């Protein structure tokens, strides 16, 4: 998937958690084998070329494409699983894969799990007694500084995903034009229960721009967000303050 995954796992029976961690890592490698657009022999590459059908692929392919279709519907087309006319669901795969890994570890008995996939994080449980997980959000205009700190206090699951230009440049595409999205934004951070959707919503909102993106994010249930413009204007959803600390 062209990025690094890291795990922070707390509590649980050591042997069971270790086995679950090994399984989670193996699953991530399998996801890369199936979905990598950089591999000519991956199932998603072969599907894009018409060499196989969805039914002939790993069942994960149909699952991810269904999630992508739902993201496209909810975002009114601002999220897409196509790039330059070619099938490319990478915009949803990373968040989905990290979320699955975290839930797998939590299901194995870990009391606290943090899975970070390229800066997007899925949290489960707590890192210790009376201690919530906290995630720093990088300031895209001030390298090394934080724009905010998100707290998972009071919830069992929380995801934090950021889309923007600070790390990878202008890589987000406007589905209407097929070209790089030209907006007033430099970063959108979305907070919600599950990383699959937080990651997709951050991408879609960035392509929309700050005004339309904020209005749309406000309409989504259980979603909060922080938007930063190139002019260093900070905009956020009404309930974000409850998630900071």
Radius of gyration, rounded?
A: 18 Å
Number of strands: 13
Structural class: alpha+beta
Average pLDDT = 93
Portion of residues in helices? Answer: 25-40%
Helical segment tally?
6
How would you describe what is shown here?
With 245 residues, the chain is α+β, with helices and mostly antiparallel strands. Helix content is 35%, strand content 25%. It has six helices and 13 strands. It has helices at residues 14-35, 43-48, 59-74, 90-107, 195-208, 210-219; strands at residues 5-10, 82-83, 86-87, 112-117, 120-125, 134-138, 146-151, 157-164, 173-174, 179-180, 185-192, 224-229, 234-236. The strands form four sheets. Strands 1-4-5-8-11-12-13 form a seven-stranded antiparallel beta sheet. Strands 2-3 form a two-stranded antiparallel sheet. A hairpin with a 2-residue loop joins strand 2 (82-83) and strand 3 (86-87). Helix 1 (14-35) runs antiparallel to helix 4, helix 4 runs antiparallel to helix 5 and helix 5 (195-208) runs antiparallel to helix 6. It is flat, with a radius of gyration of 18 Å. It starts with a strand and ends in a 9-residue tail after the last strand.
